[in-house]
Amino acid sequence: MCIRDRYCTVFGDPHIRTLGGQHETCLTLGAWPLVDDSYFAVQVTNEPLGRSVGASCIGKITVIIKSLTGCTEQKMYEATREFLPSAFVDGTTHSEELPSGTAGESRPAGKWPTHRPAVVIRELVANEHVEIFIRYISTRLTVRLAGGYLLFSVK
């Protein structure tokens, strides 16, 4: 059985590509849920773009990896337009190990911890590009900071 990859992204004012492939644009201010499922939640906070009344941008992205028995403890990640951290809020970069034999993605040498964490965060470019990989559901969350603007995607 083949499962097609699904992809969701949000950027700008906000422009959203849903997991179903639809494109949406809407002006919104304040916090709103982008994703909330059994495994993780993503909340986006939009703020006015400068003095413009008709435009907003993503001011903060909060990712919560939900606690799941046998997989991981809860982890939280917060990024703002000023700073894209390379670690979770608690200062760690990964969760506990998965039990051996658990399916997951292959790791390039030297790029990931030597054990098999259920959740790992990796900084690809300092203060510009961070990836969070949730191994037990084979999901990659990407947070980017480009030109002072936050972008988020899940695949």
From TrEMBL:
One of its GO terms (molecular function) is coreceptor activity. Signal peptide: none annotated. It holds the Pfam family RGM_C. GO terms for cellular component: plasma membrane. It comes from the Eukaryota. InterPro entries: RGM, RGM_C, VWF_type-D. Residues 6-155 form the VWFD domain. One of its GO terms (biological process) is BMP signaling pathway. This is Repulsive guidance molecule A. It comes from Trichinella pseudospiralis. The gene is RGMA.
